[in-house]
Every structure is written in structure tokens, then in C-alpha cells.
């Protein structure tokens, strides 16, 4: 099998996995039910990716984590779709004359390289 065929095989394997898991989990990665979390889909997927990468960091790459690599690739595809969906939602609201979504809590967040810190409005 040449490299092109290997790429096609791995992409087909990834596609099958994503479709099976999407069916089994009811599209929860891109349309989360939001019972315990109100994160956007893209944020929740990043957390899942962090968990998978932590598993690889702890266990290493071996037969035990081979499925984790495929999971990471799948989450990267889902993250691209979630980012597209979120960008399209913002663009659609702007086309309809509305503002981009913004909440009061957004102004208390500060970009700290992946960490989110909230300001304490009660302190002086």
C-alpha cells in the first residue's frame, strides 16, 4: 500500500468512527445538551482533546493509546466543524441586523493563553 492509499484508508477509518460515534451519542459534540455545562461546542471539544492528549502524555504512544490518536484526529475534525458553525452563526446574526453575541460575563474574561480568569467585581 502506498502513502496515498494509506491516507485514504486512515481518512475512511476516521470517517467511519466519527459517523458511528455521532449516531451513538446523538450529535452531542456539536449540539451538547447543556445539562451540566453551558460551554460552546468548540470549547467542550477542546477539553476533550486536552483529556486525550493528557492520556498520551501519561501512558505514551503504544497499543493501548492507538485509539486515542484516532480520537484526537476525530475531535480535530469536529473542532473545525464547530468553529465553522459558530462563525456562521455570528455571521448570520450580523446579516440579520443583530449584534454578535455578547454577554455581561464576556467582559470579565481575559485571554491568558488558554486559561480563563474571572475578575472579582466585589473587590476594590
State the gist of this model.
With 124 residues, this protein is mainly alpha-helical.
Give structural notes.
This protein has 124 residues and is mainly alpha-helical. The protein is 58% helix and 6% strand. It has one domain. Strand 1 and strand 2 form a beta hairpin. The chain is globular.
Based on helices, strands and strand pairing, what is the structural class?
A: mainly alpha
- Beta-strand fraction estimate: 5-15%
Q: Tell me the helix content.
A: 55-70%
The spatial strand order of the largest sheet comes to 1-2
Q: Characterize the main sheet.
A: 2 strands, antiparallel
Terminus-to-terminus distance: 67 Å
Output mean pLDDT: 82
Tell me the radius of gyration.
18 Å
Helices, by number, come to 3
Order of helices and strands: HHHEE
**Total domains:** 1
Blueprint (SSEs and pairs):
Layout: H1 3-25, H2 41-59, H3 66-95, E1 109-112, E2 115-118
Antiparallel strand pairs: 1-2
Helix pairs in contact: 1-3, 2-3
What are the main properties of this structure?
mainly alpha; two-stranded antiparallel sheet; 124 residues; disordered C terminus; 3 helices; 58% helix
Amino acid at each position: 500500500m502506498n502513502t496515498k492509499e494509506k491516507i485514504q484508508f486512515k481518512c475512511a477509518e476516521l470517517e467511519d468512527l466519527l459517523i458511528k460515534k455521532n449516531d451513538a451519542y446523538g450529535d452531542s459534540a456539536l449540539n451538547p445538551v447543556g445539562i451540566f455545562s453551558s460551554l460552546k461546542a468548540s470549547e467542550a471539544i477542546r477539553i476533550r482533546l486536552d483529556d486525550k492528549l493528557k492520556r498520551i502524555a501519561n501512558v505514551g504512544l503504544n497499543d493501548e493509546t492507538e485509539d486515542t490518536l484516532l480520537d484526537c484526529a476525530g475531535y480535530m475534525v469536529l473542532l473545525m466543524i464547530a468553529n465553522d458553525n459558530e462563525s456562521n452563526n455570528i455571521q448570520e446574526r450580523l446579516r440579520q441586523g443583530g449584534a454578535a453575541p455578547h454577554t455581561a460575563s464576556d467582559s470579565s474574561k481575559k485571554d491568558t493563553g488558554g486559561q480563563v480568569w474571572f475578575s472579582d467585581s466585589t473587590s476594590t
